[in-house]
Design brief:
Elements lengths: L1 H13 L8 E4 L9 E4 L5 E6 L8 H17 L3 E7 L15 H18 L5 E5 L1 H8 L5 H8 L6 H9 L2
Parallel strand pairs: 3-4, 4-5
Antiparallel strand pairs: 1-2, 2-3
């Protein structure tokens, strides 16, 4: 499942064209902490890391993610945006004296930002969970991809228009 999830995230990332003249690169393990990235015309990079965790990350999984971020910062010196894909939405009940997924994410972003600053880098960290992935898959441009991966056709505006034309 990990390999399939990585590929799905990379295919979605491929459609996140940052600007004209950018180049998309898909990597295979060992991957220096990123599954794929966009090389922008100015040399900056936007990278994606996918982890197929089916629940909020355990301490061991957070350490695994930390290792990926650290490798990416070491190997991709022009990294300015790092997107982490985990097919789980972040819980955020904001209960005093409790730490939930969103709290852990915020702590990690602070930690990774500090690591980037120590390397004289400025990196924006973004999260793609179940919602963000689903929103992208819901776009008409991903209809074939959605069908390929999930064997489902979305009842889109175009689908309804085509059916009405046949009446």
């Amino acid at each position: 499942m990990q390999g399939g999830f990585e590929e799905l995230c990379c295919q979605l990332a491929h459609y996140e064209l940052p600007r004209q003249g950018s180049r998309f690169i898909r990597k295979k393990a060992p991957d220096a902490g990123v599954e794929c990235y966009w090389a922008l015309p100015n040399g900056d990079e936007w990278a994606w890391q996918a982890k197929y965790f089916t629940t909020r990350p355990t301490d061991e999984q957070w350490r695994d993610l930390d290792e990926s971020v650290s490798r990416a910062l070491d190997k991709h010196k022009r990294l300015t945006r790092y997107i982490v894909c985990i097919p789980v939405d972040r819980q955020d009940p904001r209960i005093e004296d409790q730490s939930w997924f969103m709290d852990k994410w915020d702590e990690r972003v602070q930690k990774w930002t500090s690591w980037a600053n120590d390397r004289s880098m400025s990196v924006e960290y973004e999260y793609w969970g179940d919602h963000e992935i689903f929103v992208r898959l819901s776009r008409e441009e991903h209809a074939g991809r959605r069908y390929f991966w999930f064997n489902r056709e979305q009842l889109s505006q175009e689908w309804f228009e085509n059916r009405l034309e046949k009446l």
